[in-house]
Amino acid sequence: MEITPELVKNLARLSRLALTPEEEAKLGGELRSIVGFFEKLSELNTQGLPEMARPVEITNRLRPDEIRPSLSQAEALSVAIEQAEGQFKVPRVIE
After folding, report:
1. What domains does the chain contain, in order, with CATH numbers?
2. Quick one: pLDDT at residue 90?
3. Rg (CA), the chain
4. Rounded to whole angstroms, how far apart are CA atoms 5 and 25?
């Protein structure tokens, strides 16, 4: 992939970054380096290697579910700005 000055300017615009010309040049060099690294990785022969989701196995440390006292509906709705029919009422966000 070719990293052009136009591509760097477009990425900066999409990221809402105001870059100076020096910063654009530096970012272009860094992007070239990153893309070059991935191009080198694509040259590796991975035939016959097992697939890995992670290099190190991770297990979740979840606590067991426990039933505990909670707020009643009236207590929860006591802080509502608006409520209707026993539920929180919020402004519509999807037309």
Report:
1. 5-42 (1.10.20)
2. 92
3. 26
4. 8
Q: What is the torsion angle, in degrees rounded to the nearest 10, for the CA atoms of residue 50, residue 53, residue 59 and residue 65?
A: -130
Find residue 88's DSSP bridge partners: 83
Residue 77 and residue 34: Cα distance in Å, rounded? 52
The span from the first CA to the last CA of the chain, in angstroms, equals 40
With 0-12 CB in 10 A as exposed, 13-18 as middle and 19+ as buried, what is 8? buried
* Chain CA centroid to CA 29, Å: 24
pTM above 0.90, yes or no: no
Query: Tokens at residue 8, please?
Result: 């760097």
| H or E element that contains 40 | helix 21-42
